[in-house]
Amino acid sequence: MRWPDLPPLNSLLPFEATVRHASMTRAAQELHVTHGAVSRQIQSLEKALGTTLFERGTRSLRPTAQAGRLAAAVRDALDQVDAAAREVSRRERGGPLALSCEPTLLMRWLIPRLPDLATQAPGLTVHLSAGGGPVSFERDPIDVALRRDDFPVPETVSRAPLFTERIGPVCSPELAARITARASRSRAECFAGLTILHTSTRPSAWDDWQRITRTRAEGAGEQTFEHFYLALQAAVAGVGVAIGPHALVHDDLLSGQLVAPFGLVADGTGYHLLSPRPPEQDSRIALLLGWLRSQAGEL
């Protein structure tokens, strides 16, 4: 045999997944097999190598340093095999494209623009789902994800930039008139008598704006909403003043339902289209990316 030291090949996928997740249960879920099947493959690999690969605690599983090195080598090898198979097959991917998007961005920016996508790319079918935060393309049944870059993204994931995040206080025209009437005072005084609206999904929004603009915003009271879209709807209704990311309030600013009395400033973050492979390797992703960037030009 040309490779006499190779361990059982059918044990490498369960092993790599177990190291990555530090959990046999999550590895089994990813591979759609039982926990026992993964455990048996790990035992088989340890027996073949003659060494222990995991430190097992009562409720923990920690890969050894040797296991980490082996898993990295397995991952690199699998990446090469995957790339070679893709090059050999050269199959054009088809079918619907599953897109995960942050809920408020989905509701307030993406969905209203879908009729234009149908016109510009009639052959592209997109299945939408709401989701936020880190993405696992191995675990989650999605092809692409639209996310703000406020969490680490693995180097193996393709990141295509879409637009820069710009934020600022937004409120109804009536409250904006009250703020404007106090324009001769300090910015801090402009918020006197107003309710500051917060959201649990981005609790640092006001702090970020105050830090960037060196402004202290102190209103008559505060109210916190579970989701961003609820805080923004409260702002439209005149309940108080919320921090509005441009993409989420763009249409309301155009229609006059909301006003940004202090303008909008970049907060140092941005939105990206994440995918398990570069867009140029999948015509559906490339088509969607081109359309998203054309829409993002307004931001």
The CATH class of the largest domain is Alpha Beta
What would you say the CATH architecture of the largest domain is? 3-Layer(aba) Sandwich
Could you tell me the CATH topology label of the largest domain: D-Maltodextrin-Binding Protein, domain 2
Spatial strand order of the main sheet: 4-3-5-11-6
What spatial form do the alpha-carbon principal axes imply? elongated
Describe this protein's structure.
It is a single chain. This protein is α/β, with parallel strands linked by helices and 299 residues long. It has 3 domains: 9-89, Winged helix-like DNA-binding domain superfamily/Winged helix DNA-binding domain (Arc Repressor Mutant, subunit A); 97-163 and 270-296, 3-Layer(aba) Sandwich (D-Maltodextrin-Binding Protein, domain 2); 169-263, D-Maltodextrin-Binding Protein, domain 2, CATH 3.40.190. Helix content is 43%, strand content 19%. The protein has 12 helices and 11 strands. It has helices spanning 12-21, 24-31, 35-49, 65-89, 103-110, 114-120, 173-181, 187-190, 205-213, 228-236, 246-255, 283-296, and strands at 54-56, 61-63, 97-101, 126-130, 144-148, 158-167, 169-170, 195-199, 221-225, 241-243, 265-275. It has a 5-stranded mixed sheet with strand order 4-3-5-11-6. It has a 4-stranded mixed sheet with strand order 7-10-8-9. A two-stranded antiparallel sheet has the order 1-2. The protein is elongated and about 80 Å long. The protein starts with 11 loop residues before the first helix and ends with a helix.
